[in-house]
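Q: I have 197 residues here and want to know how they pack in 3D. Can you give me a structure?
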Amino acid sequence: MDNKPKLVIIIGSVREGRFGPVVASWVAEQADTHGAFDVTVVDLADSEIPLALPAASPKYAGDAYPRPAGMAELTSALESADAFVVVTPEYNHSYPASLKAAIDWHFTQWEAKAVAFVSYGGAAGGRHAVLHLENVLTELHAVTIREGLAFPNYFTTWQDGRPLAPEAPGYAKTLLDQLAWWATALRSARRAAPFPA
């Protein structure tokens, strides 16, 4: 029986012409090579994610929360995950509305789980988006990983689906090493006792 932690890589942008799937594919390749995870890529463009939310909070509604049928696969993937890598661009110094909506439609699915970030953008490489995401996911009791990957000026620093910087795979390994440690520790803790939210 495979006991590897389940890693869900989330493509956060649904924008036309987005670069997220290219980055996510490379991250998934790095995670497969790393070998510590059972890896799944989830594209938010494949799910129904309305911006309007029900009156009740998902924190208190639990399984009774009225999510759209088109969100079921996303919810199941988030629920089964032990860890996440969020792949996000930076839009106007923050992250996409699609990603915020996906986060807000869920609550317990993030609790006591490890989250790492891979960002891309212009000169800042998406770092402003990650700073905002760290605040939001901490509120949901997720554990964010300090070591992330940022790709400034991705439009000139990637070629044939890969970053040109030779050190990028090494940085990815450090991220995945830390994410695997936290994912394993937090999974053990969740199995030992319910998270006291």
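Q: Anything worth noting?
A: The chain has a mean pLDDT of 96. The longest strand covers residues 114-121.
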